[in-house]
Design brief:
The chain has 81 residues and is an alpha+beta fold. It is built from three helices and four strands. The strands form two sheets. Strands 1-2 form a two-stranded antiparallel sheet. Strands 3-4 form a two-stranded antiparallel ribbon. The radius of gyration is 24 Å and the shape is elongated.
């Protein structure tokens, strides 16, 4: 499928056909990540946030951190006045 670049205000824009939006499960306001491949191809990827996986990763990260004295307490105890 060919898509034409068109002027939109002071910018250029691509119009994505409705059937592609439906297949990609995209709606107005969704974000895409754009990158340029070494061969010059423009790559668009969906940038959907999976909140559950982010929360799970944060919990795992938090559990991996050792609990110790606060840094401020350590600095105060080692301070020389």
């Amino acid at each position: 499928m060919d898509i034409q670049i068109a002027k939109w205000g002071n910018s250029l824009a691509l119009r994505i056909p409705q059937h592609l939006l439906k297949e990609a499960n995209l709606t107005e306001g969704d974000f895409l990540s754009a990158s340029l491949a070494p061969d010059g191809t423009i790559v668009l990827r969906t940038k959907q946030i999976d909140r559950k996986s982010i929360i799970r990763e944060l919990h795992e990260f938090r559990e991996s951190m050792p609990m110790s004295k606060s840094v401020i307490k350590q600095l105060r105890e080692s301070a020389r006045y």
